[in-house]
Write a structure and sequence with these properties.
7-stranded mixed β-sheet, 9 helices, globular, binds zinc ion
Length: about 250
Amino acid sequence: MRFASLGSGSRGNALVVEAGRTRVMVDCGFNLSETISRLQRIGYAAEDIDAVIVTHEHDDHVGGVARFARRMRIPAYLTPGTLAAVARRFEHVDVRCFDPHAPFWIGDLQVEPYPVPHDAREPAQMVFNDGRHRFGVLTDVGCPTPHIRSMLSGCSALMLECNHDPRLLREGPYPPSLKARIGSRFGHMRNEDTALLLAELDNTRLLHVVAAHLSDTNNRPALAQMALAAAIGAQPDDITVATQEAGTDWIVLE
Ligand SMILES: [Zn+2]
Ligand SMILES: [Zn+2]
């Protein structure tokens, strides 16, 4: 299995996961031409994607999905709640609903979804399993739950939200209502929350950690890297950051 972020943050998210002959995109918050040029950066054409999985209806995740899926004639996978929130935009898309508690297969890739607390209708995050490695993804979550901990334990790679540093958020320019939303239990994870979660997981198989969905305004890559590295006794440089502009290079699980 290998994966690459095409970009991560509040101005758009997309992630590509490949196993065997199967290539799926998780979310697409970019317009069509932006998505195609970001795919080119990792050596893909738009036609290479077999399916898109949507985590939730916020525009930085779903904004480009319907158009991409329609144009490429590929299925889009959503929870029933997410579909209810975006149904009108998804006319003429091959929609497949998934239960956020039930694993399903797309080609060679098993998807293990799980529900998360976030201010959306029925948000789900997921673990990808190719039979040899599990790759766990968690962004857009207000606070970790016991179920999240059990899903993310035993993974070979993790992509974890490090949305903000509480001091930068507190002292930053956002209006009080937005600060409250971001910091709530249905908002986004602070660096230290993510570090605490990471430290609590079974990390005996862990090879790669990626910090994702960093706020441009309320976080710094070095702060996220320091927090996650300390949680697992690694060096800050060992933690990859998925940036808004460039995402990540391919990360390969042999
Ligand atoms: Zn988001
Ligand atoms: Zn969100």
